[in-house]
Fold this protein.
Amino acid sequence: MGQSGSVVDALFANSRLAEVYDPLDPDRSDLDAYGAMVDQFGARRVVDLGCGTGTLACLLAGRGVSVVGVDPAAASLAVARRKPHAEKVRWVHGDARATAGLAADLVTMTGNVAQVFVTDDDWHTTLRAIRTALRTGGRLVFETRDPARRAWEGWTRAVT
Ligand SMILES: C[S@@+](CC[C@H](N)C(=O)[O-])C[C@H]1O[C@@H](n2cnc3c(N)ncnc32)[C@H](O)[C@@H]1O
């Protein structure tokens, strides 16, 4: 992770691509589990790290949760800012290092955010920064792929 933030994938940083992120993946039932955890933990202050186009952040804000949405891709944040309830979210252009002192009950990393941290250094930097965003007893929840399933083998069609 560079000092200015992260190397951001073009899909999230390019405005034309950021615009099609939601239409290409309209089923966000994957976020239901995060909504349920917010309820289960009684979280009132949430940081959505790698919020992208802000679907979860806006959803939670609409439920009265105080939300900070953080992402290094400005183009994705621009999409997020146009969604219902976006005006209730605090949007931060940056990475985990921008979250210090927020005293959050919960930090979330949804979708493939965890996959952007590919070195031990990136993970250490990110986890340390997340720790500073959480109140004592606060939680980090995220999902990640299971490399043992070798999903990538089904992504590319064989060339014959
Ligand atoms: C697959 S998208 C997921 C977006 C959103 N969480 C969702 O579920 O739709 C991955 C996001 O991680 C962001 N990202 C890239 N590097 C990051 C970093 N160092 N810290 C936080 N987010 C990062 C990207 O800009 C992108 O928005």
User: Anything to note?
Assistant: Residues 31-144 form a domain with the Rossmann fold fold (CATH 3.40.50.150). Strands lie at 45-49, 66-71, 90-93, 104-109, 134-142. The helical segments are 10-13, 15-24, 32-41, 55-62, 74-80, 120-133. The chain has a mean pLDDT of 92.
